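Forwarding these from the shared drive since the link keeps breaking.
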Amino acid sequence: MNRASVAPSTNAEGCPAVVQSWTSWFVHSAPNGDSKPSKNAASRAGSVVVVVDVVVGVGSVVVVTSNGMVSNESMYMSFFTAGATAPLALGLFAIATPLVDYATEAKQYSTDVACALLLLSASRPWLRPETDMSTAWRIGIVGAACLWLSYPALFVLAGIGVVVAGRAVTTPELRAPAAFAGLCWGISSALIYIISVRTLAANATLLEYWRSSFWPVAEPGALRWPLDALMAFVSDVAGVQPIFLGLVLAALGFAWLAWTRSGTAIVLTTPLLLTLFASAMDAYPFSGRLLLFATPCLFLTMAAGLTAGIHVWPKRIARLSWLPTVAVSLAVLYEPSKAAMSRLVEPRTPEHIRPAIGYMMSHRRSDDHLYVYYGAKPAFRFYARSLAVPSGGLTLGRAHRDEPQAYLAEIDAEGTTRRLWLLFSHECPFCPVPETNVILKGLDKRGRRLDQFETTGAATYLYELSAR
């Protein structure tokens, strides 16, 4: 299956056009329903993408550990006591359910996380009191590359840019690498805008789909909305439970970083704040998988909060400071660990279409016709080769979201009396009416349902249709 294609949201009134056009790239739509790659090509491409996502997910853990992001030597957490709080950040990153889930899907969100980590790692020389000039130039190249790989990288770069600019003002020898970084980022951003972003048209459907994820600043309850959204980010996106403990650790971590490492505080908190600001402009949804890129910043901030607790622990019983550290870490890691263990026993299978295709193939006659719902096409193409689905007697449906009766007309266009299999998955969640129900009810009136097989997020049905 292919990575999700990218589509824009419509411009919000009063939002700068360039900002709106750029951030609209962040709103990812379903795969293009009109593209028709061969089954072999789709299968090969899908396999490569899945492997890449798994490698990126595992590689991100390597980046966290090998670069000392959570160790005693890390400039983010250099005030750790013998790395006592390191297991919290590393543990959350390694087993958080959403991160693991998206590392196994053919989607771009694990790459967003990896790019955020690379940028955080590359920014470390700028956070040291004495910057290593040999590594200071690195952020320009890494930042420019990440903009092409991950659009939310712009939010992460914004926080880093504030620190880079500040250091350049106070330290003359850093002005050259800072100017180089700004030039690299500017050229990369301009090329992306010219090549891709400016050609995007408004997409009211996606804007409506993400409507609840935009901060309604002019509506009642606007002041409470960011708090609710932040709690959802901590619990649903980052997978932190209990929510209250996660929020307290993050708040303590921010305060501690702002007091001891102001540059680090800026780098770790700016991405989420800018994302919230973008949501107020209807430019970027502040919810769900689109916030996954910010989870490393949250985990590091939470670890800093645990460190703050260690430093305020009474000195007369300093030897016992490990007790609350271990207790809080275990409390935060308990639910993610429990979820991770359950996945080992029963793996997550969203939209599990392969059993549905297998059932259909084991019961299909040679003269049966197959209609594939447009939402199921990418997954169907991925499995078609390995499950030996014949190319004959096949109709790949098209999207008719504004005119659901057109699906029935599409089926009727095949004509003749026949047995018809239908394959459904990835149904449109925001369409005016449930499209699957429209199709099935229409066919129930035109023929007889002979068989059906349903699995998680997918289903196949067999009808015997009368001539029309």
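-- next protein --
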Amino acid sequence: MKLFKASLFLSVIIAFCCIEKIAAQVSISGEIPSLKNDQVQLWIKNNPLAQSKEYNANVDEKGKFELQIPITRIATARIKVNNNYNNLIILPDDKFTIEEEDSGITFTGKGANKNNFLQLIRKNKLSEDDFSGKYKEASLPLDEFLVQLKIFKNSRLHLLDDFLKTVKLEKEYIDYFKLENEVIYECYLNKYPRAYSRKNKIDFQSLSLPKEYLEFKTIDRFISDDKIESFRYIKEISDYIYLYAILIKENNEALNWTEAKHIFMFDTLKGKTKEYILANWIEGQLAFNNYDSLAIQEFEKIKTSSIPIEVVGKSLEKRDKKRSLLGKSLNLAFQNTILLDTAKNEITLGEVMAQQQGKVVYLDTWAMNCYPCRMAMPYSRDLKEKLKGKNISFVFLSTEQVPQKQWTKVYETTHTKENHYVLKHGFKAKFLQLMEMNWVPNYMIIDKQGRLKDYCADRPSKENNERLAKRLSTLATE
């Protein structure tokens, strides 16, 4: 029985946004009677450096919806309908229909075949999600894991070959799938021995590695500009930054973490890989209001590709826009953010700040399911105790909804019953949308006059508390 049918079609509008970049307007429409007055959500990554961007379509009383989405190249997407999530691959000339039946999702039309292939992978339990459990458990001996990894890799390729016997796929997608498949294989060859040694408390250097693992014992064998189009490749290299910084610091304890990471990025990486990873690093640092001048200088020396150049340029613009708010009264996005108090009464953030007038506010945006958030709470308690008697308030905003019976657990976790609120719209809260913050924990400082002093303040910790206490105390006496 068909549950819904949605049409996706593309009209390509050529625009020279930047070198090698073509903009295409993707229109997704459909009619889903079971979703009357509800919403369809889609998240899309338009290039290997892109953050997932969310698109929402309201469904009217007849179950109809429409989305307009710009893409520039092959894009990965994830769509949510009726609490079900499905992965999509989109190319700039696709025009296909999505149908949901009791047996699952199917696609028809131009560009449908590659998404039907994704569903086939899922049904055959050959997605990376299906395999990743073996890596996370890290219980298989190295040779046994290698056997399973080869079976996984080859089974995906055999499935593709069998599919292509009767169905055509775009060459761009075939190349993309084979590249991702190889990158996944090499990622696990590189990562599994260390995961196995940690889980089983075995010295990594004492492991007897089969030759396949030895080839990828260091990252040099993995690095290749031929893989730059792989979404997974960029993520994996970015994850290696911290791992190799640890190894670098072991050889030179005088280095700080940033210096160790710089050595890896500046000296180990080459070519386009270095350019993309530096852009990714700079974007992340700027999001936290950290201007890494050395990384930016290194990037300026080597930049040639349009995507990294655009990412760094936009990131600098976003940082400047956010920094322009510092030292000023909270704007309307902050003031009009809707909160719920512990009795579920609505109150705006502006009203909460008015109640704290004359006090410095340390604004802690957090969530109970966030481990770093919870681990910071004892240090937050210590900081609050250290500042006791001063005109300083700690205000807690939860991005998660808190059932009434769970408030006791919240009080225990935060070590206080004071100044607790819930962001009614979670990460879609107006001030978080303005500041483009989609993570927790996040800490902001508002001075006694209600002016924003910092939107990425230090987290309470053993290392930070003395500096935080001095800063907050200074603001309280100004």
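Confidence is low (pLDDT under 50) at residues 6-20. Residues 106 and 390 are 62 Å apart (CA to CA).

- D.
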